[in-house]
Amino acid sequence: NLFKSNQLFFLLHLAHIIAMESIAWFTIFYFGNSWIPTIIMAVVLATSQAQAGWLQHDYGHLSVYKKSMWNHIVQNFIIGYLKGGSANWWNHRHFQHHIKPNVFHKDPDVSMLHVFVLGEWQPTEYRKKKLKYLPYNHQH
């Protein structure tokens, strides 16, 4: 039964995320937007958004319900309404990730050239040729 999902677990996980989103909203509503409530709300929202990302990932893999239509409906709800993203966009990028995992210029998960570059020669070459705007030759 390794591939049998516990649907109650996923339902409670979704309820947990919705509860955290509600707690964050009610914190600001009840206590106002001073520093302490804002920090509390930011921590609660960051946690719920991270959890929602992984939950929609499981639904995006069609691994929760036996019918893919139900997986798509819940994934669209989570990523569309709770995270404000597009399930089609996420699926397109995630399929590319599974086709060519960790292949530079193919896997969108490792295309982070505006943040860092990989390897021994790439940081120095990018800086010398001024291909991007960060000092890549100093990254560690």
Automatic annotation (TrEMBL):
InterPro entries: FA_desaturase_dom, Fatty_acid_desaturase. GO terms for molecular function: oxidoreductase activity, acting on paired donors, with oxidation of a pair of donors resulting in the reduction of molecular oxygen to two molecules of water. Pfam families: FA_desaturase. Keywords: Fatty acid biosynthesis, Fatty acid metabolism, Lipid biosynthesis, Lipid metabolism, Membrane, Oxidoreductase, Transmembrane, Transmembrane helix. Its main location: membrane. GO terms for biological process: fatty acid biosynthetic process. The chain crosses the membrane at residues 7-28. This is Delta-6 fatty acid desaturase. The keyword Membrane applies. It comes from the Eukaryota. It is found in: Membrane. One of its GO terms (cellular component) is membrane. Signal peptide: none annotated. It is a multi-pass membrane protein. It comes from Capra hircus. Residues 34-114 form the Fatty acid desaturase domain.
